[in-house]
Amino acid sequence: MNVQENLDKLWKDCKRVLKVARKPDGSEYLDFSKITALGIVVIGVIGFVIVLISQLIGL
Q1: How far apart are CA 32 and CA 40, in angstroms?
Q2: How far apart, in Å, are the Cα atoms of 14 and each of 1, 3, 9, 11?
Q3: CA–CA dist 22, 1 (Å, integer)
Q4: What is the CA radius of gyration of the chain?
Q5: CA torsion 5→7→22→35, rounded to 10°?
Q6: pLDDT of 33-47, one tens digit each?
Q7: DSSP string covering the chain, please?
Q8: pLDDT digit string (tens) for 1-59?
């Protein structure tokens, strides 16, 4: 395949994705926000525990 064929395929794929994409409604947006916040909290707690353990063993 040459560059032009690759660009044409990419353009067709992008148009197809944009056709089926839609804006999330309020409840979906709230669910995504809750999941994202939960992930941030979990990563923060894991980091805190790692720092706490490393300070306790003197690293």
Answers
A1: 12
A2: 19, 16, 9, 5
A3: 32
A4: 22
A5: 110
A6: 999 999 999 999 999
A7: --HHHHHHHHHHHHHHHHHH-----HHHHHHHHHHHHHHHHHHHHHHHHHHHHHHHTT-
A8: 688 899 999 999 999 999 999 888 999 999 999 999 999 999 999 999 999 999 999 86
The domain limits of the chain are 23-59
Structure tokens at 52: 């706490």
Q: How far apart are CA 8 and CA 40, in angstroms?
A: 39
Cα 31–Cα 32–Cα 33 angle in degrees, nearest 5: 90
